[in-house]
DNA sequence: AAGCGTCCCAACCGCTTATGA
DNA sequence: CTCATAAGCGGTTGGGACGCT
């Protein structure tokens, strides 16, 4: 048995809205408001439409101050930056762009901006002798090299320049793959890492799977500053520090602090230790810590699923926010 | 002009979340 | 706490617009 329909489909008009319908809806809402009930609104407004359809029409087209037309470079930057950070959370992204709707931004991303960005990030032609600006293809074949953020000698495209001026000092390969991800999973970063994990001794799926068959997998909370503090506050210890403490959540344990495990990128022997110690890697934004805190304090199993998919069976990577630059830089040392 | 392919976006679908009884 | 209902949300798609041959 399927889901009950939200309205009687046989009695409602579907498809494009006519100017008359737009007028009726607009007039009614401006006069009476939505009344907090979209379901009953169409009848009151004299429309043969489903409430959902009315809501969508109003929110995406009719309500005041909707901005239509070309996106500015600044808007492009905001969308790209936020997409790289939080993924396809269109409503959150839209909240940062006054007058733009989530639907609009989603369409714009899918039809134009994604292509624009990929063009900008296309790897340089093979003849190039100076592709120090790291490309996605490049990092696939150069694992365990350290990533030196000071050696960029090529000139990024204007679009990349505008991106970097909006907050990223450097578009990392990791971020590139995140931006280029078209996945529908919760985190394109996660997918990018998974894909590359096949060739990465640290993130190799094989290694990971072999070591992930018990409930006490070691867990590295990979973050900095407030992340660790927040994570530490989840533990039973109360001194606020995170170093060497054990974080108990869902049967996982923290085995070391980020800083303890953060190797000097020029000394690769640290990777051996990491492989031995860390069976799971979490890149954790502060919000996920909040989730865990609220989850534990509320004694709810929610909500490491959804936004933070299935903590029990997979490498858990969520988008990197807040002090993301530091985290990404650190992560990249492993990633290579 | 006709035919075809691609692009674009408004609208839909159905899942998740919030809310209230 | 459970359940029902509505709103919110993001992925998908139908079909019109447009460009090319």
From TrEMBL:
<dbReference type="Pfam" id="PF00249">
    <property type="entry name" value="Myb_DNA-binding"/>
</dbReference>
<dbReference type="InterPro" id="IPR017930">
    <property type="entry name" value="Myb_dom"/>
</dbReference>
<keyword id="KW-0677">Repeat</keyword>
<dbReference type="InterPro" id="IPR009057">
    <property type="entry name" value="Homeodomain-like_sf"/>
</dbReference>
<feature type="domain" description="HTH myb-type">
    <location>
        <begin position="63"/>
        <end position="117"/>
    </location>
</feature>
<dbReference type="GO" id="GO:0005634">
    <property type="term" value="C:nucleus"/>
</dbReference>
<feature type="domain" description="Myb-like">
    <location>
        <begin position="9"/>
        <end position="62"/>
    </location>
</feature>
<feature type="domain" description="Myb-like">
    <location>
        <begin position="63"/>
        <end position="113"/>
    </location>
</feature>
<keyword id="KW-0238">DNA-binding</keyword>
<protein>
    <submittedName>
        <fullName>Uncharacterized protein</fullName>
    </submittedName>
</protein>
<dbReference type="InterPro" id="IPR001005">
    <property type="entry name" value="SANT/Myb"/>
</dbReference>
<keyword id="KW-0804">Transcription</keyword>
<feature type="domain" description="HTH myb-type">
    <location>
        <begin position="9"/>
        <end position="62"/>
    </location>
</feature>
<keyword id="KW-0805">Transcription regulation</keyword>
<dbReference type="GO" id="GO:0003677">
    <property type="term" value="F:DNA binding"/>
</dbReference>
<keyword id="KW-0539">Nucleus</keyword>
């Amino acid at each position: 048995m399927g889901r009950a329909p939200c309205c009687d489909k046989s009695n409602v008009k579907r498809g494009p809205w006519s100017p008359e319908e737009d007028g009726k809806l607009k007039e009614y809402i401006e006069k009476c408001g939505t009344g907090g009930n979209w379901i009953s609104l169409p009848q009151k407004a004299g429309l043969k439409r489903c409430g959902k359809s009315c809501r969508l029409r109003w929110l995406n087209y009719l309500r005041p101050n909707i901005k239509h037309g070309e996106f500015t470079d600044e808007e492009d930057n905001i969308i790209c930056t936020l997409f790289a950070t939080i993924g396809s959370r269109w409503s959150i992204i839209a909240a940062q762009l006054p007058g733009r709707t989530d639907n609009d931004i989603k369409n714009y991303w899918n039809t134009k901006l994604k292509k624009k960005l990929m063009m900008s990030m296309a790897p340089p032609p093979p003849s190039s002798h100076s592709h120090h600006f790291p490309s996605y293809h490049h990092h696939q074949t150069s694992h365990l090299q350290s990533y030196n953020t000071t050696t960029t000698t090529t000139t990024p495209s204007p679009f990349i320049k505008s991106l970097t001026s909006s907050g990223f000092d450097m578009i990392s390969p990791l971020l590139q793959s995140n931006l280029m991800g078209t996945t529908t999973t919760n985190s394109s970063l996660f997918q990018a890492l998974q894909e590359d994990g096949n060739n990465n001794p640290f993130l190799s799926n094989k290694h990971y799977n072999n070591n992930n068959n018990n409930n006490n997998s070691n867990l590295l909370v990979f973050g900095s500053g407030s992340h660790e503090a927040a994570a530490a506050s989840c533990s039973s210890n109360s001194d606020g520090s995170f170093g060497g403490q054990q974080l108990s959540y869902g049967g996982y344990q923290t085995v070391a602090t980020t800083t303890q495990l953060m190797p000097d990128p020029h000394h690769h022997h640290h990777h051996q230790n990491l492989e031995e110690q860390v069976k799971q890697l979490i890149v954790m934004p502060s919000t996920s810590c909040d989730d865990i805190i609220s989850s534990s304090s509320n004694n709810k199993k929610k909500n490491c699923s959804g936004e933070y998919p299935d903590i029990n069976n997979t490498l858990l990577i969520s988008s990197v926010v807040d002090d993301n630059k530091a985290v990404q830089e650190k992560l990249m040392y492993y990633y290579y």
